[in-house]
Design a protein that fits this description.
Number of strands: 9
CATH topology: TIM Barrel
Bound molecules: iron/sulfur cluster
Radius of gyration: 20 Å
Helix content: 40-55%
CATH architecture: Alpha-Beta Barrel
Oligomer: single chain
Strand content: 5-15%
Order of helices and strands: HHHEHEHHEHEHEHEHEHEHEHH
Number of helices: 14
Largest sheet: 9 strands, parallel
Number of domains: 1
Structural class: alpha/beta
Shape: globular
Length: 400
């Protein structure tokens, strides 16, 4: 380590030096790193940045997307969720195909390439009125309805769907695969403790970590490029944070399908059960991003800029290489009080830090370039026509 960091404890210096050399940290070392004192965080960030640079050069990516909140009904009641609504709430809504298409067409006009479908998990299992809504349209499940609207959006607008519908069985993923460039499910955290009374996932049948890992595993078996991640500050221990990252890494080592790992910070909001729960500090976020980079090596790491609006540039120095989906059009329905940074601002912030911002598709560049079974044949022509030899969106297709 450079002399400027000479306050670093030898033990931490040794772990970081070895991590940069071997591109690896083991679990015990990661437990130590996630607990380092504040004065050691810059050294973590420096080591993480070196690893990011070795794998990604100076390119930072984002996906230009529209957000389609297909339904905000859900059978779960996560303590941090501001998206979910109960039937009867004036803001409860399930989008019709016409409404979905109107948003997608506006997105296409705004130069978007991705349609991100976000929705509650299995509301039909809880709400009879929603079951009737689906039945009158000929559907027994939300996932079957989702498949058809993904297809509709792709056929009518060319936007590439990325579905994020919660827990899925193998056959659900197989059915959605044709009409999705990639799919996603946050692991959130691997801790079963969060399911206990008072925990963030109490009475949330779809937040059982084992089930979420199974969904991620099915996606790997079916060669679906998959986005996942952790939500920090929801009552997990620091060790559980590390364990969650290792669980993600192990799945990727087996199937090579985890295209993106999101490190998301919990934000308290007035209308959620966890409104009084403390938020992770910026330092905590930077430490976690850096440790994630040290654990995950060359995998893609994203942190949402809109959840730390005044300081997100720092994420670049902690080792991220992607800003996630950014919408020039629709608001962030999951965190509606936090508008996304304007793209020109994001570009400026990224360039100020010494990087180049490039647009990617909902399918990460390495999967496009490798073309090794992760591209749905139905979407292949569009995906390949939009991208250059690096798998990034061709410059003439980019819009700022
Ligand atoms: S599963 Fe998702 S949509 Fe449902 S309550 Fe939890 S965070 Fe909200």
């Amino acid at each position: 380590m450079p002399r400027i960091l000479n306050r670093l404890r030898p033990e931490i210096e040794e772990i970081l030096t070895k991590a940069v050399e071997t591109q690896e940290v083991d679990r015990e070392a990661a437990y130590r790193l996630i607990q380092v004192e504040a004065s050691a965080v810059p050294a973590l960030m420096l080591a993480a940045s070196q690893i990011r640079d070795q794998h990604k050069g100076n390119t930072i990516t984002y996906s230009r997307k529209v957000f389609i909140p297909l339904t905000n009904l859900c059978r779960d009641i996560c303590g941090y969720c501001t998206f979910v609504r109960q039937p009867g709430d004036p803001q409860a809504h399930t989008m019709t195909p016409e409404e979905v298409l109107a948003v997608a067409k506006a997105g296409r006009r705004a130069g978007c390439k991705e349609a991100l479908f976000s929705l509650g998990d299995k509301p039909e299992a809880k709400y009879p009125e929603y079951r009737s809504w689906l039945a009158t349209r000929g559907y027994g499940t939300t996932l079957k309805y989702l498949r058809d609207v993904c297809q509709l959006v792709y056929e009518e607008t060319g936007l590439l769907p990325h579905a994020n519908p919660g827990i899925m069985a193998r056959e659900d993923i197989a059915a959605l695969r044709d009409v999705n460039a990639s799919m996603g499910l946050m692991l959130e955290n691997i801790s079963d403790r969060l399911l206990r009374p008072g925990g963030a996932h109490y009475r949330c049948p779809d937040k059982v970590p084992k089930l979420r890992l199974s969904t991620m595993e099915y996606a790997g078996q079916l060669k679906v490029a998959f986005t996942t991640g952790i939500l920090i500050g929801i009552g997990e221990t620091l060790e559980e944070r590390v364990d969650s990252l290792f669980a993600i890494k192990e799945l990727h080592q087996q199937y090579g399908h985890i295209q993106e790992v999101i490190i998301q910070n919990f934000r308290a909001k007035a209308d959620i059960p966890m409104r009084a729960h403390p938020e992770p500090t910026l330092l905590d976020m930077l430490r976690t991003i850096a440790v994630a980079r040290l654990i995950l090596g060359g995998m893609n790491i994203q942190a949402p800029p809109n959840l730390t609006p005044d300081a997100y540039q720092m994420y670049l120095f902690a080792g991220i290489n992607d800003w996630g989906g950014i919408s020039p059009l629709t608001r962030d329905y999951i965190n509606p009080e936090r508008p996304w940074p304007k793209l020109v601002e994001l570009k400026k912030v990224t360039e100020e830090a010494g990087f180049e911002l490039r647009e990617r598709l909902a399918l990460y560049p390495e999967y496009v370039v490798a073309n090794n079974g992760f591209i749905s044949p139905a979407l292949a022509e569009r995906i390949l026509s939009l991208t250059d030899s690096h798998g990034l969106v061709r410059r003439e297709e980019e819009r700022w």
